[in-house]
Amino acid sequence: MNKKIVILPGDGIGKEVTTEGKSVLIKIAEIFGHEFEFDEAIIGHDAIEATGNPLPDETLTKLKNCDAILFGAVGHPKYDNDPTLKVRPEQGLLKMRKELGLYANLRPIKLFDELLEASSIKPEILKGSDILFFRELTGDVYFGEKGRRDDGNTAYDLMIYQRYEVERIAHKAFQAARTRNKKVTSVDKANVLESSRLWRETVQEVGKQYPDVQLEHLFVDSAAMKLIQNPRSFDVVVTGNLFGDILTDEASQIAGSMGMLASASVGDKVGLYEPIHGSAHDITGKGIANPLASILSAALLLDISFGMKQESELVIKAVEETLKQGYRTTDIADAKTTREKILNTQNMGAQVVSQLAKIASQLSVSANN
Ligand code: NAD
Fold first, then answer.
1. Could you tell me the distance, in angstroms and rounded to a whole number, from the CA of residue 10 to the centre of ligand 1?
2. CATH number of the domain that residue 353 is part of
3. What is the reported pTM?
4. What is the DSSP string of 263-293?
């Protein structure tokens, strides 16, 4: 199969981890006889430095004309510490989501058994957790009217949702639940917010078309608590942009580290795949970033955008096998054991690639398959 993939490294550790995600895609193409054509583009701080624009037109054109995008992260301390700067890296990210019509962000939260001890949550609470988040991406406070009143001392960000925005992501969540444990938890703050009341009303309406799927509603504060108290009680979670942003970071602790969680942003056109973590300036350039979230994002890309289930499962198996053999980056290391072998970013990527080749030869997967 011939496919065109744009690598969008972005800033900070984005560059380090996408290099490893790309090498996994190259290996998969080699094993299965696919032709993946790669291109690269700039976004975020690097793009501002080069062009003054966090999402240059040239980047957008490349993104609109490819089959899938593997993205790293954007962000730079310069902007984090100076809220007065008008041109900011995240604007590139928000504009990209809007321009590409990426309205649903899927975040699978699944704990590899080998990492049970790496989480700060007790293993007996975590074991068996498997949650699929659907975070809405194009509405909410991120895109509502924002500004400051004349006195400069009052600021506002409008939380806004339209019915069609809730409908389309609710359908995606119910459809996904049908292929899993048939339960959708919709998270809102309908006791206080009008936009949440529209959200709840709409999800209930959509839910009537999926009578085989159980629907529950939780307020975001209660959902935040239950996620840690009893993560196994969740199957598919659907929520708005802001609540989803916060809850999925919280849920990353179920998977052991931010460095383990992949995500897919999908809409009607091209799909974008990225780790849920940011550009992590505290560890940039140290070679210790965990590349597994980017590698697992590549697995999602193969599955969702290219329909390559076997290829995607092979990547996940290779990650699992790498962990089983005790290889860890520092973020997922268990200080209590000496059995683990600590690797840097590049060597962790190389381990996964070598596992891919090994498992493929054991399964006799080949280009003729
Ligand atoms: P972050 O996700 O970058 O980092 C949070 C913590 O997790 C840090 O201690 C970091 O070292 C650690 N971490 C993250 N990814 C890791 C990995 N792969 N391996 C090992 N450890 C990892 O979040 P932050 O510190 O709040 O933000 C840093 C910058 O990233 C900011 O500029 C922010 O705006 C940006 N950001 C971008 C995105 C994105 O591009 N999608 C998302 C979140 C934050």
1. 12
2. 3.40.718.10
3. 0.90
4. EEEEESS-EEEEESS---TTTTTTT----HH
Domains held by the chain: number: 2
Which residue has the CA at smallest separation from atom 43 of ligand 1? 278
**pLDDT, tens digit, for every residue of 108-142?**
998 888 888 777 888 899 888 999 999 999 899 99
Element (DSSP H or E) covering residue 176: helix 163-178
Q: Taking the CA of residue 338 as centre, how many other CA atoms within 13 Å lie in the half-sphere pointing to its CB?
A: 0
The CA distance from 282 to 287, in Å, is 11
- Among protein residues, the one whose CA lies closest to atom 27 of ligand 1: 278
- Ligand 1: does its nearest atom lie under 6 Å from the Cβ of 276? no
Domain boundary pick from 206, 234, 253: 253
Cα–Cα distance, 44 to 142 (Å, whole number): 17
Measured CA to CA, the distance from residue 163 to residue 178 in angstroms comes to 23
Nearest CA to ligand 1 atom 42: 278
Question: Are residue 317 and residue 271 in the same domain, yes or no?
Answer: yes
Is 22 one of the catalytic residues?
no
Pair (240, 283) in one structural domain: no
